[in-house]
Amino acid sequence: AKLWKNTAKKKKLPPGPKGFPIFGSLHLLGKLPHHDMHKLAQKYGPIVHMRLGLVPTVIVSSAEAAELFLKTHDLVFATRPPHEAAKYITWEQKNVTFSPYGAYWRDMRKMCSLELLSNAKISSFKAMRKEEIGLLIDFIQKAARERVVVDLSSMIMSVNWDMSCRMVFGKKYSDEEFDERGFKAVIEETLYLTATPNLADYIPFIAPLDLQGLTKRMKHVGKVFDDFFDKIIEEHIRSKDEHGKTKDFVDVMLSFMGSAESEYRIERPNIKALMLDMLVASMDTSATMVEWAMSELIKHPRVLKKVQKELQTVVGMERMVEESDLEMLQYLDMVVKETFRLHPAAPLLLPRAAMEDCTVNGFHIPKKSRIVVNVWAIGRDPNAWTDPEKFVPERFAENSIDLKGRDFELIPFGSGRRGCPGLQLGLILVKLVLAQLVHCFDWELPNGMLPTEMDMTEVFGLTTPRAKHLLATPTYRLRK
Ligand code: HEM
User: Which residues bind heme (predicted)?
Assistant: First the structure.
């Protein structure tokens, strides 16, 4: 009896809701799953077990617990779960983001970090970023002269889209060249499809029924990208020998095509999968962060003025911000951290999965469990932060908390083996656009709306942007 007791004790699952047969606790997750999971953590603790359909799922909601999963036991949780959307949209999960842990993922990730996201490669696009952000500022300056309201959300999305296109494909593409619905609509559909809880992921045997009609939509989106990327690859192969131009990501990847340097031959589908990864990962995350940072700054005029004052001192009023100014902008850095704390672009990171049974903090985590780290909840944890609901960038003046994956109170880019390889680039994109927008302009809400009346509702997706576009009226403030 004692022996039995011991094994029973060893297999103790983390606490959590019981759930129904087959469906488990799927009904507990609504339109904003990170909020619902936060409530579960408040009830059951920082490590919650719940069954979503047939899949055991572990929700991690404190800095200490996150460190156990992403650092202490990182290797056990370094894979991604199977994912219906990724199957149809990312060429059978051939991308880095969703590919299972193993030699293929390691090779592809190495290529990303060494060839595409290295400091040298990031620098090679500096002039391009300056040009695109210059166009954005010109456009807003015109609106300022005419005293018209600007749809900041759309503007931010567009400039990020253009910069990502030029970095990945080497040029901008217009909507019509892509699909009759246009880029943004298809990207939005993609993000929706990859993030929406799909019953087929949780109850695999019903997948063929396509109850939510998602498979049909995923196949369609997959085809749109496939055709578009084929066209781009063809264009690159034709213009291969053009000298003097900065090599874009497709050029770099094509130079690896067919090579047997790595264990896997890189062929077209692999390149296409990475093209999509790079495009979506760089565009949407950064845009979402700038959108939230601008929202918080307009909501908190005191903070906005302080950022502008710093810019005035470091940059002066005679010129625009340069990338080389960024490292001197300490208060801006705090504002960005505070925005990441309250509005992490990916509130649940990307799901991990357990490669084997593991014991974490005395709890049994069964093999194949899905691990969801709720960074949105960690950013609001009163054990880690004083007045967590308040937007106070100054809190970072008193500590050395960084967002690079070492301080588990703040891990918007994840951490460990599967942590974001685009962190450097992501931070540059966010800071540069943000700094420029507040250095060049003052911002006022339309129709005399008060900052306190701003609607800060979010919509859940692979990234979690504002539900309503941010609208504001600019006034130009530089002397040039
Ligand atoms: C503000 C900008 C960004 C944010 C907030 C962000 C956030 C994240 C997060 C949360 C993950 C999952 C980490 C984990 O599972 O621990 C991730 C993974 C990833 N990110 Fe980013 N990211 C950003 C920018 C970028 C950029 C610019 C790129 C490249 C162009 C990029 C490429 C990737 C890739 C390839 C992965 C998958 C890594 C893997 O599974 O091995 N990200 N990112």
Answer: 420
Where are the domains positioned within the chain?
Answer: 15-476
Q: Is 346 in the pocket of ligand 1 (CB under 6 A)?
A: yes
109-164 residue pLDDT tens: 998 999 899 999 999 999 999 999 999 999 999 999 999 999 999 999 999 999 99
Nearest CA to ligand 1 atom 31: 422
49 CB near ligand 1 (under 6 Å): no
- Residue 252 CA, ligand 1 centroid: distance in Å: 20
The pTM of the full predicted model, rounded to 2 decimals, is 0.93
Binding residues for heme: 420
Whether 380 contacts 389, CB under 8 Å: yes
Binding site, residues?
420
Q: What is the pLDDT of residues 6-51, one digit of tens each?
A: 554 568 999 999 999 988 999 998 889 999 999 999 999 999 999 9
- ipTM entry: 0.99
Q: What's the chain look like in SS3? A: CHHHHHHHHHCCCCCCCCCECCCECHHHCCCCHHHHHHHHHHHHCCEEEEEECCEEEEEECCHHHHHHHHHHCCCCCCECCCCHHHHHHCCCCCCCCCCCCCHHHHHHHHHHHHHHCCHHHHHHCHHHHHHHHHHHHHHHHHHHHCCCCEEHHHHHHHHHHHHHHHHHHCCCCCHHHCCCCCHHHHHHHHHHHHHCCCHHHHCHHHHHHCCCCHHHHHHHHHHHHHHHHHHHHHHHHHCCCCCCCCCCHHHHHHCCECCCCCCCCECHHHHHHHHHHHHHHHHHHHHHHHHHHHHHHHHCHHHHHHHHHHHHHHCCCCCCCCHHHHHHCHHHHHHHHHHHHHCCCCCCCCCEECCCCEEECCEEECCCCEEEECHHHHCCCCCCCCCCCCCCHHHHHCCCCCCCCCCCCCCCCCCHHHCCCCHHHHHHHHHHHHHHHHHHEEEECHHHCCHHHCCCCECCCCCCCECCCCEEEEEECCCC
Asked whether 81 lines ligand 1 (CB < 6 A), one says no
Report which ligand 1 atom has the smallest distance to the Cα of 345: 5
Determine whether the shortest distance from the Cβ of 419 to ligand 1 is under 6 A. Answer: yes
Residue 353 in contact with ligand 1 by CB distance below 6 A: no
CB-ligand 1 contact for 288 (6 Å cutoff): no
CATH architecture, domain 15-476? Orthogonal Bundle (1.10)
CB of 56 within 6 A of ligand 1: the answer is: no
Mutate to test the pocket of ligand 1, among 420, 423, 431 (most ligand atoms within 8 A of CB): 420
Question: Cα of 419 to ligand 1 centre, how many Å?
Answer: 7
